[in-house]
Amino acid sequence: MIRNHRVIAAVVATGAIAAMLAGFGVIKSLVAAVACWLILRIGVLMLGGLARPVPAPPPTGEMRRVKLTYRCEICGTEVRMTAAPEQDPEPPRHCQEDMVMVTPVDDL
Ligand SMILES: [Zn+2]
Asked: For the whole model, what pTM was predicted?
């Protein structure tokens, strides 16, 4: 976060100096610098709010052994799931769609 503040401050200071050198006047340049700083800070905060750290995978002891087969209804790819955090896991995705479980009922 501190690094972001420095980058924003550097960008704002550079812009303010450039505006003053271009003849916009001190007050106009300072007002623009403050507005620029606010907009950049709010933007960085919003982007930071979107970033979620990936949760750590559970230890191997907590994984359930499963033997589930899924098929992609679009391209026909089949995959077998052998371990999952729960007994009835979410189906994996392929071709941007949820895969369909094709495990025979006897194997469940
Ligand atoms: Zn597919």
From this structure: 0.46
Note whether 82 and 91 are within 8 A (CB): no
CATH code where residue 64 lies? 2.20.28
- Measure 44 CA to ligand 1 centroid, in angstroms: 36
Contact 66, 80 (CB under 8 A): no
Is 36 part of a structural domain of the chain?
yes
> 78 C-alpha vs ligand 1 centroid, how far in Å?
9
The predicted-structure confidence for 61-86, as pLDDT tens digits, reads as follows: 788 888 999 999 999 999 999 988 88
Classify each residue of 28-44 as buried b or exposed e, where b means 16 or more C-beta atoms within 10 Å of its C-beta.
ebeeebeebbeebeeee
